[in-house]
Amino acid sequence: MGLLLIFVTVPLLLGALALLVSQTRSDQQLAQTQLTALAQTLAQAVDREFDRGKAQLDVMADSSVMDRRDWSELHAFGSSITRNSPGSRIVLVGPDGQILLSTAVPLGKPLPNLWSLSQQPDVLWEGRKLPPGSQNMTRQVFETNQAAYSNLYYGVFSKQPVLALSVPVVRDGRVAYALVLSFPPARIDRLIRASVNAPGLRALVIDRRSVVVAGNAASAHTMGDTIDPLPIPAGSLAGTFERTSRDGTRIHGAYATSAVNGFTVRVALPTADMQSTWVGLGVGWLLLAVGVLLGSIFFVAGLGRRIAMPLRQLGNAARNGRVPDAQPTGIAEIDLLARALRTGAQAEEKRREELIISAQRQQAELDLRRADRQKDEFLATLAHELRNPLAPIRTAVELIRQRQPTDAVVLRARDVIERQVSHLALLVDDLLEVSRINTGTIQLRLELLDLCAVVASVAESAGPTLRAAGRTLVPDLGSALDRVPVMVNGDETRLSQCVMNLLNNAVKFTQPGGCITVRVLPQGQLAVVEVSDNGIGIAADNLDRIFELFVQANPSGSDGHTGLGIGLALTRKLVVLHGGTVNATSAGTGHGSCFRIELPLLASPAAMAMTPTPTTKTTTTSTTTTTHDTLEQAPIEPAASGARVLVVDDNCDAADMLCQLLTFKGFDATAQYTGEGALRAIESRPPDAVLLDIGLPDMIGYQVCRRIRAMAGLEQPVVIALTGWGQASDRKRAQAAGFDGHLTKPTKPDTVMELLNEKMAARSAALSARDDLAVTD
User: Fold this and answer.
1) Each residue's pLDDT tens digit, 1-39
2) More exposed terminus of the chain, fewer Cβ within 10 Å: N or C?
3) Residue 775 pLDDT class (50, 70, 90 cuts)
4) Does residue 748 sit within a domain?
5) 157, exposed or middle or buried, with CB in 10 Å at 0-12, 13-18, 19+?
6) Are residues 589 and 667 both part of a single domain?
C-alpha cells in the first residue's frame, strides 16, 4: 500500500513543481512583453502628438498665403490653428534665423533672431537648467530640407518649458523659410498620466538629451530632470532593462525610442511587485502539495478496500465451498469508458475539421465576391476618370475645325485625333457597360423586333468602315421584298451593339482583303445571327475563354489591334440578358471563325400580330444611353451675341478649351477652377449661363448650384451640369440641386451648343414674359 501511495503522490508533486517553474518563467516573459508593448504604444501616441502639429505646419507651408508673403493673413492663419491649443505658438523663421512673425506677438512688433537666442546661456527654471531656444533645429531644416524636432527647452515668449517641431517652406526648389510650432509639454504629460495609471507602474518620456519631458504620478522624476541614459545597443529602438531608480527602488522595465523624433518612453514596475506574484505561486504550490498528499492517502485507502474486498470474498467462498459472488472491481467498466471516450473524441475531431473546412470555404467565397465587387468599382471609376481628359481633347479638335486650317498635315492630324478620341470613348463606354451589368444596373427596353432589319441596319452602318479597312462585308439577309421576318423580343440598341461587337472582332482578326459574312436565319425555336470570317481563326484551347472579361485569344492581332478583351464578354452578357446564348467555332488557327447568337424566336401568327409594346427589363437601378438630359423643354434658338457664360471645371485644360470654343461661337466666356472662385465671379459679374463640373476640389457641384439658386437679387442664370458621372441617379440628383440640364463627358461640342442655346432661349422667353407682365401691371 505504501508503494502505491508513493507511485501516486510523487508524480503529482513533481508535475506540480514543474508547472510552477514553467508558470513563473512564463509570467516573467509575459510581464516583460507587456511592458515592451506598452512602451511602444506610448511612443506611438507621442509621435501622433508631433504628427498632428506637423500636419498643421504642412498646410501652412503649402498655402497660397505663403506664396503671396502676406504676413498679416499668415499671422491670422497661424493664430486660428493655435487658438484651440493653449500655450501653442507658430513662428516663421528666415534663412538667416530672423523671426519674421510669431503668433505670440502682435504683427509689426520687433522680433529677435532665433539663432542668436540659442547662443545664450542656459536658463534656470525651478532649479533645472534648460537651453533658451530650440538650438540647431531650424538650421537643420534649412540644411536638410526635412522636418526637425527639438529637445525640451525654455521658451522666450511663454517663459515656460516647451517642445517644438519645424518644417521647411520650399519655393523654387529651395528652402525659403522654416515654420516652427511650439507647444507645452503638458499635452504629452496629460497623455502619459491618462494612459498609465495602474498602481506601481511608472512611465517617463525622455528627449534626446536624457531630459524628462513628462511622467506619470508613480515616477520618481519630474519635467526637466536629467536622468542616466540606458546602455542601449546601437540601432535598437526597443528593449528591456533592470536598474535602481532615483528613489532607490529596484525596477524592471522596457523602453521604446521613436524613429521620428528620437524621444524615448520608459515604463517600469518595482521588482518587489513582480516577485510578489511568484511568492504567491510558491505558497499555492505548497498548499497544493499538502492537498495532493492528503487526497492521495484517502484515495489509496479507498482503492485498496475496493480491490481487497472481492479478494476476501473469493477466499471465503473457496474455503466454504460456495460459488463466488464477488462484486466486480470496475476494471472492465473503465476499459469500456475509455473506448467510449476514444470514439467520442474521434467523432468530435471529425466534426471540428468539417466546421473548419466549411468556414474556410465560406471565407474564400466572401473574398472572391469582395474581389469581384472591387473590380467592378474599379472599372466604373476608371471609366469615369478616362472621360475627363476626353472632353478637352474633343473640344480642342472642334476648335481646330472651326479655325479651318489649310495645312494638309494639320488636317490629317485633326482627323486622326478625332477618330482615336471616338475609339477611346467607345472603349470607355464598354467599360461602363460591363460595370453596369456586373452591378445589376443595366436596362433593356424590350419590344417586338425583326432581327433581319436590325442586322441589315448594322451592316449598312458598318459597311463603309469595313471597306475602308480593306475587308469585304457580305450580308446574307435576302432582298428587302422577299425577306422573311425573324421576330424576337429584344432591345434594338443592345442587339445592334452585340452584332457590331462581333463585326469589329472579325475585322481585328481578318487580314486586309478578307471576307466577313453576316446572316440571319430561323432554326426551330431559335433566331440565329452568324458572323463568320476567313481570318486567322481561333485555337481550340481558347474557344471556351474568349468570352471571359479581359481575355484575348490572340495577343498579337492581325493589325496589331488587341483591344481590352471587353467586346465579346459584353456581348455574351447582353445576349444572356435577352434569354439567349452566344458561342464561337473555328477549325483552328488559319481557318477563320464563326460566332453565333441564338435568341428565342417569336414565330407564331399570334406573336407576329402583336402590337409592339416596349417593355423594360431592369435590375435594381436603371441607366440610359442619351447624351444629355434636359429638365424642361423650350424652343431652340441661337444664343444672344455676347451672352456671358461661366465655365467651372477643376480640369484647367477642359475649362480653357471650352471657353475658347464658346468665345469663337460669339459668347463672352470666362473660366473658374474652384467652387468658391465661381461663386465670387458670379457675385461680381453675373453670367447668363454656367457650365458647372460636379467633382470640384473645394466643394461639390451640387452645393455650388444650391448656393447660386439662393443668391438674392440675382437674375438666375442657366446652370448646366458638365460631368463624367452619367447615371440616372446622377441626373436626378442634379435636378434636385437646381440644375437646368445635364451633360455627360466627353460631350460633342455641337451637343453643348445645342443645349446651351435651348436653355438660354427658354430663359430669355421667361424673362421677357416677366417684363411684359410687369408692364401690364
Assistant:
1) 566 557 656 776 676 666 656 655 666 677 778 888 988
2) C
3) low
4) yes
5) middle
6) no
